[in-house]
Amino acid sequence: MKQAQGKNKHDIEHILTNRTENILLFNDEEKFNIERNRLGGLLLLKSRDNRSSNDELYSEKLKTYSGTSTIFARTLTVDFYKSNPDFRDFMNKYNLNFKPYSSFSHQEIEERQKLIFDMCKIIWEV
Known about the structure:
47% helix
């Protein structure tokens, strides 16, 4: 994969790393690879943040996501929702089901996939 260039470089981040623990969540390596590449299983992260969390399990990646990550990454964490009334208003206005996840597998990927679809419908007025 070609590395991003420029001052504000971002990489595509797989929420689930290619580790045995994650593959076992799907009972099948092929299914795991398909699911982890769906939009619901991806984020954009600053390149340096992405490389620093490299091969971590999801529970460890949450620490990276809660920092200076993109808003979409931070929505995976509990702390993001504590004092964020503007974002709660945004969620309510557009009826978007953002929520934190303490674990991440097929169901969470499916929910995030639907969330992206719902946001696209709003943006493009479909």
